[in-house]
Structures are given as C-alpha cells and as structure tokens.
Amino acid sequence: xxxxxxxxxxxxxxxxxxxxxxxxDALADGSLPAEKxxxxxxxxxxxxxxxxxxxxxxxxxxxxxxxVVPAAQFLGVISGPENTYFLRSFEALSATPHxxxxxxxxxFLDIMKQARLSGRYEIMLSVLxxxxxxxxxxxxxxxxxxxxxxxxxxxxxxxxxxxxxAGVVAYLRGQLDSAWEGLNSAQREKVxxxxxxxxxxxxxxxxxxxxxxxxxx
Length: 217
Known about the structure:
Number of domains: 1
CATH class: Mainly Alpha
Number of strands: 0
Helix content: over 70%
Low-confidence stretches: none
Mean pLDDT: 97
Structural class: mainly alpha
Distance between the termini: 48 Å
Number of helices: 11
Largest sheet: none
Shape: globular
Strand content: under 5%
Radius of gyration: 17 Å
C-alpha cells in the first residue's frame, strides 16, 4: 500500500464523509438550490489565491525539473480555466465574487498558509494531495452526468474528473509517496497530522455548504 493510501486510511471516517456528501450528491443530480451553490462558490473562490501561492511554493521546492513541470502546468489550469469558470458562474448566477470568509473557509486557508510557510515539500504536498484527491473522488462517479447540468454545476464536475485531472492527482500523490520514503518518524507524524487536518477541513467545508453559507450581495 502506498504512503498516500495509508494516510487516507488514518482518517477514513472524515474522508468518506467528504467524498460521499449530500452537498455533492445534490450538485450532481441538479437539485442543489442556486442559493447554496452561490454561497459555496463565493467561499471556494476565496481559496484560489492561497492555493496558487501554495502550489507555486511547492513548485519552488520540487527536487528536479521533471518534478516541476506537471505542477507548473496545473498552475496554469487553476489561474486560467478554473478561475474563468468562477467568474462566468458568478455572472450567470448574478452573484458577486466578493464575500467575507466563513469560519470553515478561514480554517482551510490557515492550513494552506501553514503548509506554504513550512518550507517543507512534504507538508505542502500533504495539503495539495487532500485538496485535489478529495475532489477527484467525489466528482468521478458523476462525470457522465455533467453534460445535462447547467454549466455552473456540470463544469465543476468536469474540472475535477477525467483523465487530465486524474493525472494531476496521481502526480501529486506520487510526489508525496516519493518524499515519504526519505522522512524520519517525526517528519512522517507531521505529514500525517497535516493530512488528517486537511481532510477534516474538507468535511467541515462541505457540511457548512450543505447547511448553506451566507450569500454575499
């Protein structure tokens, strides 16, 4: 079993709750109220800047050019098509992209910042792996349903499924699996703690989205 698979087993309850959630089920079957999707998108959009900074920091700490290239290409997706998706969705839903951060959003922003400032490649990867792998796992079962949904629902699925995104997740997992081999027990404990914390934050974020974030006007 790979290191990332082992890490997932250490927080299985939160992982399953985050990847098999009522919020994403409703998103995928088209029954999610527009107001809940707007609140979710407003909060999720707050992650983009810190995520870009975290990914850029990971790129700077990657061991070789071979390790850098896939992350650099993914950085272009986040700052290009994904950012554009948010802006198009806000326009279509007549919503502002500007919203104060909810406490669940603040918690996730905080661990992304902690990872970025750690100076440790494996810590950065532990958060990046969770952020992308959780989304691949919830979105993949719904990939075939995306085309029949309004784009602000369907494209959120397609951005997080398919061979291209699966390749990104495989790359990130591979980087963490490789880094894990060179870590001592204390360093591994730190990775495990950060990984579990990130998964708990994902679960809390989806729980709050399902309850309904306050929509900024």
